[in-house]
Amino acid sequence: xxxxxxxxxxxxxxxxxxxxxxxxxxxxxxxxxxxxxxxxxxxxxxxxxxxxxxxxxxxxxxxxxxxxxxxxxxxxxxxxxxxxxxxxxxxxxxxxxxxxxxxxxxxxxxxxxxxxxxxxxxxxxxxxxxxxx
Length: 133
Known about the structure:
Helix content: 40-55%
Order of helices and strands: HH
Oligomer: single chain
Structural class: mainly alpha
Shape: elongated
C-alpha cells in the first residue's frame, strides 16, 4: 500500500470513466450516460473516494509525525540531573485516561469444576462429622 493515495475530485466537465471532456450527460469518447441513477451513484462514490483519500493522507501524515517524535525521544540521551521546576505545578488538561479493567468471565466448564469442588468439600465435611460421632 502506498504512503499516500490520490483520487481526483469528480468534475462535471471530465468523464469519470475515460477522462475525456464532457459536453453533456453523455461521454462522446466512451458512450457512458451519466443522467440516470447510476450516474448519480458514480458521482457520489467518486466524491466519497476523494474525501476518504484526503482523510487517509492526513492520518498517515500524523502517524509519521508521531513516529518521528517517538524516534527522537527514544534517541535523545537521558538528562543527567533533574531540572528544578520553573513555576508551580500545572494540573493536566482533560480527563484522566484510566485503563478499563475487564472482569474475567467464567466459562461453563469452569463453573462446573467449581461446583464439583464445592460438592466434594461438602461431602468430606459431612463424612468427617458422621464418622467423628
